[in-house]
Amino acid sequence: MVIEPRHRWSLGLGSLSSHRELTYFLIWRDVKLRYKQTFFGAAWALIQPIMLMGVFGLFFGRLAGLPSDGLPYSIFVLSALVPWTFFSSAIGAASRSVVVSGQVVSKVYFPRLIIPVAAATAFFIDLGLALAFLVAVEPFWGIYPTWRFVFLPLLAIFALLVTLGFSIWLAALNVKYRDVVYMVPFMVQALMFASPIGYPSTIIPAHLRFLYGLNPLGGLIEGFRWAAADSTSHPWSQIAVSIAVTAVFLVSGLVYFDRTESSFADII
């Protein structure tokens, strides 16, 4: 074995590959602990978006009468809640992950980047279950699989990258500033209303479209709706902007995490 100094621009990505067994172990540990001693178990991956679909359908669909781009409102909302539920659940767990693992971080060395990555990726199984449920119930509303379904795996990976972009930043900041744990729920709620979950992005005024498009969840959600629910929208420009913003979040988060990782054990 040859021990060499790590390249300063590697950003810790090589450590994820060299410690992949540890990453897999932490992912499965989080999955098992999350549903341990629960009555419904992994069914919570379906219960949460179904309950939110009912709330959105009642208040935004029936009472507010918001448009749904020609889709049944239930499917319109559910196709957005599939990636949204994954994002909101994963970012909450990943932002706290480094501090929660403080006893291990302060005693044993391993690449700290593994912790938030594993915490967020553990919810990828929930995303797969929710996506399978969405595809299974769509025929009840007269929506059947099309060639667009082939894009769903790519969009699922994109959802993971969007989540990691936020999670890595928040996990590193939460070590130094414990206010982050109080800020995350508010940020998640704000992003819910700033994302096209209960309404189509076409209702946003033209002069606000640019600012609205900076939310990477916008393109992600519209992409899921286009691929899974056969929406008539053409979200490619939104997806392109979301990819660009996600790349900025992800790279800058990796840089910040890499620069502050060495002080985690002392601060925690």
Report the sheet-strand fraction.
Answer: under 5%
Low-confidence stretches: none
Structural class: mainly alpha
Specify the overall morphology.
globular
Number of strands: 0
- Helical stretch count? 13
What portion of residues is helical?
A: 55-70%
| Gyration radius, in Å | 19 Å
SSE order, one letter for each helix or strand? HHHHHHHHHHHHH
How many domains in all? Answer: 1
Question: Which structural traits does this protein have?
Answer:
single chain; 268 residues; mainly alpha; 13 helices
Indicate the topology.
Blueprint (H helix, E strand, L loop, with lengths): L12 H6 L1 H16 L8 H20 L9 H28 L1 H4 L8 H8 L2 H14 L14 H25 L3 H14 L15 H5 L2 H13 L7 H25 L3 H4 L1
Helix pairs in contact: 2-6, 3-4, 3-7, 4-6, 4-7, 4-8, 4-9, 4-11, 6-8, 8-11, 8-12, 11-12
Describe the structure.
The protein has 268 residues and is mainly alpha-helical. It has helices at residues 13-18, 20-35, 44-63, 73-100, 102-105, 114-121, 124-137, 152-176, 180-193, 209-213, 216-228, 236-260, 264-267. The chain has one domain (13-267). 39% of the residues are buried.
Question: What can be said about this structure in brief?
Answer:
This protein is mostly helical.
